Amino acid sequence: MIEQNPKEEVLSVIKAIEADPAATQRNVSRKVSISLGKTNYLLKELIKKDMVKTMSFFNNPGKLRKIGYILTKKGLEEKTRLTYYFLRKKEWEYNILKEEWKKVIADKNKRPAEE
Asked: Is residue 54 part of a domain?
């Protein structure tokens, strides 16, 4: 498995919550492909930073309380900021690969043809 950048993990969690506010931590963990403990940690940090709010779906005595997650305005702004960051990063990586590819093609064209 490819290790994700912490910013990518945060963006992935935010996107998962936005897609399904009723998703449990376990569901988010599976969707984002990170451990349940790390998902718990990231959600707590997002809640502390007021990017995500929790809401209770049930409050029946004797039953486990089901919690949903809602993105706040601050959370949507963070999603936009992180998306912009990754688009810029991917554009930079693309330009580097494009230059490397040009060099490979130029080197190939300089070599004499094999008989």
From this structure: yes
User: Percent of the chain beyond pLDDT 70?
Assistant: 86
Contacts (Cβ under 8 Å, ≥6 apart) of 23: 16, 17, 31, 68, 69
DSSP state, residue 49: T
Residue identified by tokens 């949507």 is: 76
Q: Which amino acid is at 69?
A: Y
- Residues 53-76: pLDDT tens digits? 988 766 655 555 677 888 999 999
**Domain count for the chain:** 1
* Domain contains 96: yes
Q: Which ranges constitute the DSSP H helices of 20-64?
A: 25-32, 36-48
Flag whether 90 is in a domain. Answer: yes
pLDDT value, residue 24? 86
